[in-house]
Amino acid sequence: MLDRVKEMLMANSLCVLCTVSGDLPYCSLMTYVLSDDLKTVYMVTVRESRKYKNLLENSTVSLLVDNRQNLAYPSDETVSSITFEGGLKYLAPLETEIIRTKLAESHVELKEILKNPDCIIFGIELKTFLLLNGPVDSVQGKI
Protein backbone atom coordinates (compact mmCIF):
# COMPACT_ATOMS: atom_id res chain seq x y z
CA MET A 1 0.00 0.00 0.00
CA LEU A 2 1.26 3.48 -0.74
CA ASP A 3 2.92 5.30 2.12
CA ARG A 4 0.55 8.28 1.73
CA VAL A 5 -2.51 6.01 2.05
CA LYS A 6 -1.09 4.40 5.20
CA GLU A 7 -0.17 7.80 6.64
CA MET A 8 -3.64 9.23 6.09
CA LEU A 9 -5.41 6.18 7.53
CA MET A 10 -3.24 6.30 10.65
CA ALA A 11 -3.45 10.09 11.10
CA ASN A 12 -7.25 10.19 10.98
CA SER A 13 -10.06 8.73 12.98
CA LEU A 14 -13.05 10.04 11.01
CA CYS A 15 -14.45 8.74 7.76
CA VAL A 16 -17.61 8.87 5.71
CA LEU A 17 -19.17 5.43 5.25
CA CYS A 18 -21.43 5.15 2.20
CA THR A 19 -23.93 2.31 2.10
CA VAL A 20 -26.73 1.54 -0.35
CA SER A 21 -30.29 0.28 -0.06
CA GLY A 22 -31.95 -0.50 -3.38
CA ASP A 23 -30.67 2.32 -5.53
CA LEU A 24 -30.44 4.92 -2.74
CA PRO A 25 -27.03 5.84 -1.27
CA TYR A 26 -26.69 6.77 2.40
CA CYS A 27 -23.65 8.44 4.01
CA SER A 28 -22.67 8.35 7.68
CA LEU A 29 -19.88 10.18 9.50
CA MET A 30 -18.08 7.50 11.51
CA THR A 31 -15.10 7.08 13.79
CA TYR A 32 -12.85 4.08 13.30
CA VAL A 33 -9.88 2.07 14.47
CA LEU A 34 -7.56 0.19 12.12
CA SER A 35 -6.41 -3.39 11.96
CA ASP A 36 -2.68 -3.92 12.46
CA ASP A 37 -2.21 -4.62 8.74
CA LEU A 38 -4.20 -1.44 7.84
CA LYS A 39 -6.52 -3.42 5.57
CA THR A 40 -9.63 -3.30 7.75
CA VAL A 41 -11.36 -0.43 9.52
CA TYR A 42 -13.58 -1.20 12.49
CA MET A 43 -16.66 0.78 13.53
CA VAL A 44 -19.69 0.57 15.77
CA THR A 45 -23.37 1.22 15.19
CA VAL A 46 -26.68 -0.01 16.56
CA ARG A 47 -28.65 -2.89 15.11
CA GLU A 48 -31.62 -0.71 14.10
CA SER A 49 -29.57 1.95 12.30
CA ARG A 50 -30.19 2.61 8.62
CA LYS A 51 -26.50 2.01 7.83
CA TYR A 52 -26.54 -1.44 9.44
CA LYS A 53 -29.74 -2.43 7.66
CA ASN A 54 -28.15 -1.25 4.40
CA LEU A 55 -25.02 -3.32 5.13
CA LEU A 56 -27.13 -6.43 5.60
CA GLU A 57 -28.89 -5.78 2.29
CA ASN A 58 -25.75 -4.84 0.35
CA SER A 59 -22.35 -5.49 1.94
CA THR A 60 -20.43 -3.41 -0.62
CA VAL A 61 -19.47 0.07 0.60
CA SER A 62 -17.46 3.15 -0.21
CA LEU A 63 -15.41 4.86 2.47
CA LEU A 64 -13.90 8.36 2.33
CA VAL A 65 -10.98 9.55 4.48
CA ASP A 66 -9.42 12.98 4.07
CA ASN A 67 -6.88 15.18 5.80
CA ARG A 68 -9.06 18.24 6.51
CA GLN A 69 -9.28 17.57 10.26
CA ASN A 70 -5.48 17.79 10.45
CA LEU A 71 -5.06 21.04 8.49
CA ALA A 72 -4.90 24.48 10.01
CA TYR A 73 -7.46 26.91 8.61
CA PRO A 74 -6.75 28.66 6.37
CA SER A 75 -4.03 26.44 4.96
CA ASP A 76 -1.76 26.43 1.93
CA GLU A 77 -1.43 22.66 2.26
CA THR A 78 -3.23 20.55 -0.31
CA VAL A 79 -6.39 18.77 0.77
CA SER A 80 -5.99 15.05 0.12
CA SER A 81 -8.66 12.37 0.17
CA ILE A 82 -8.87 8.64 -0.30
CA THR A 83 -11.96 6.85 -1.52
CA PHE A 84 -11.95 3.14 -0.75
CA GLU A 85 -14.14 0.38 -2.09
CA GLY A 86 -14.71 -2.36 0.41
CA GLY A 87 -17.03 -4.85 1.97
CA LEU A 88 -18.54 -5.85 5.28
CA LYS A 89 -16.48 -8.14 7.48
CA TYR A 90 -18.22 -10.09 10.23
CA LEU A 91 -16.25 -10.53 13.44
CA ALA A 92 -15.83 -13.54 15.69
CA PRO A 93 -16.86 -12.99 19.35
CA LEU A 94 -13.27 -12.74 20.63
CA GLU A 95 -12.33 -10.29 17.87
CA THR A 96 -15.45 -8.24 18.67
CA GLU A 97 -14.35 -7.81 22.28
CA ILE A 98 -10.80 -6.85 21.28
CA ILE A 99 -12.15 -4.21 18.89
CA ARG A 100 -14.68 -2.99 21.49
CA THR A 101 -11.77 -2.32 23.85
CA LYS A 102 -9.77 -0.51 21.14
CA LEU A 103 -12.78 1.64 20.21
CA ALA A 104 -13.41 2.51 23.87
CA GLU A 105 -9.77 3.46 24.43
CA SER A 106 -9.44 5.48 21.22
CA HIS A 107 -12.87 7.13 21.13
CA VAL A 108 -14.28 8.09 24.52
CA GLU A 109 -17.22 9.69 22.70
CA LEU A 110 -18.42 6.15 21.84
CA LYS A 111 -18.82 5.17 25.51
CA GLU A 112 -22.63 5.15 25.48
CA ILE A 113 -23.08 3.31 22.20
CA LEU A 114 -20.54 0.66 23.22
CA LYS A 115 -22.61 -0.02 26.38
CA ASN A 116 -25.80 -0.39 24.34
CA PRO A 117 -26.85 -4.07 24.16
CA ASP A 118 -27.90 -3.49 20.53
CA CYS A 119 -24.49 -2.19 19.42
CA ILE A 120 -22.88 -3.93 16.50
CA ILE A 121 -19.13 -3.82 15.94
CA PHE A 122 -18.20 -4.51 12.36
CA GLY A 123 -15.28 -4.31 10.00
CA ILE A 124 -14.91 -2.99 6.49
CA GLU A 125 -12.27 -4.77 4.43
CA LEU A 126 -10.59 -2.22 2.20
CA LYS A 127 -10.11 -3.54 -1.35
CA THR A 128 -9.22 -0.68 -3.70
CA PHE A 129 -8.43 3.01 -3.33
CA LEU A 130 -8.35 6.28 -5.22
CA LEU A 131 -5.99 8.81 -3.62
CA LEU A 132 -6.48 12.44 -4.62
CA ASN A 133 -3.88 15.08 -3.77
CA GLY A 134 -5.76 18.24 -4.67
CA PRO A 135 -8.30 18.26 -7.48
CA VAL A 136 -6.27 16.60 -10.27
CA ASP A 137 -3.35 14.53 -8.92
CA SER A 138 -4.63 10.97 -8.43
CA VAL A 139 -3.34 7.45 -7.80
CA GLN A 140 -5.40 4.25 -7.89
CA GLY A 141 -4.52 0.89 -6.48
CA LYS A 142 -5.47 -2.29 -4.68
CA ILE A 143 -4.99 -2.88 -0.98
Classified in CATH, the superfamily is Electron Transport, Fmn-binding Protein, Chain A
Largest sheet: 8 strands, antiparallel
Classification by helices and strands: alpha+beta
What is the count of DSSP helices, taking H or I runs of 4+ residues? 4
Shape: globular
CATH architecture identity: Roll
Features:
single chain, alpha+beta, Pnp Oxidase, Chain A, 44% strand, globular
Structure description:
The protein is of the alpha+beta class. It has one domain: Electron Transport, Fmn-binding Protein, Chain A (Pnp Oxidase, Chain A, Roll), CATH 2.30.110.10. The chain is built from 4 helices and 8 strands. It has helices at about 5-10, 50-55, 95-105, 110-115; strands at about 15-20, 25-30, 35, 40-45, 60-65, 80-90, 120-135, 135-140. Strands 1, 2, 3, 4, 5, 6, 7 and 8 form an 8-stranded antiparallel sheet that branches. Strand 1 and strand 2 (about 25-30) form a beta hairpin. The longest helix is centred in the last third of the chain and has 14 residues, at about 95-105. The relative contact order is 0.23. The model has no long low-confidence stretch (mean pLDDT about 95).
